[in-house]
Design brief:
Radius of gyration: 30 Å
Order of helices and strands: HHHHHHHHHH
Number of strands: 0
Number of domains: 2
Number of helices: 10
Largest sheet: none
Structural class: mainly alpha
Length: 250
Amino acid sequence: MNRRHASTAFAAALGLGLLAAAGSRADQLSDLAKDLMQQPAAQSAAQSALSDGDIGAGLKEALAKGTHAAILDLGHSGGFWNNPRFRIPLPGPVQQLESALQGSGMGSQLDQLHLSFNQAAEQAVPVAADVFSQAVQKLTLNDVRTILNGPQDAATQYFKRTTSETLTTKFKPIVAKVTAKVGLAQQYNSVVAAAGPMASMMGESTDLNGYVTQKALDGLFTRVGDEEKAIRTDPAARTTDLMKKVFGSK
């Protein structure tokens, strides 16, 4: 074979190879597309195979587990105070003057004030158990499917929407009782008095009980959200067969 014929044969072979490779690649892409299209259908079929009773019971187990863990984690001595992520800060106006107050010898009073905020929240949180339980019992089938197929915080948002008002009503008297016992208002007033002329920077007087109550709720819902995300994304967090069955179908 002369050089010209050899070049022609090589070009033809290369062309056939590229066509074959392109065809193989197209087949792979086609198979991948089919797989991706079949996944939602498979997930939908898996959920359809579950009875409404199974879905409702599995979700309720997950909600009970999540809220129980959140309450246990925060509703005890040190639950807020010992966890930097959930520790309730001093009110903003006090934070603005914290350095100056520390420098004027008010450090111990500030520390006690800060601790008292968190202790009040820790004592209020356990009453959320009954409120959450009632909210779970009121779930409709539509609620269940909306939560199951919703975003990672769909259950947490459901709890916020349905329990925040009741929890505020129940938390606030407990917070008020604790703050009265430790003299929180007097502690706060002594801090304000120590600020002297700088006290005007604190603005209007703070509703201490309202402040602690809201921060306690914020922390509780954040912790419930942590549990919900874990159950949705981590199979190891699904501790019952029914939870595995329901959340494994997603």
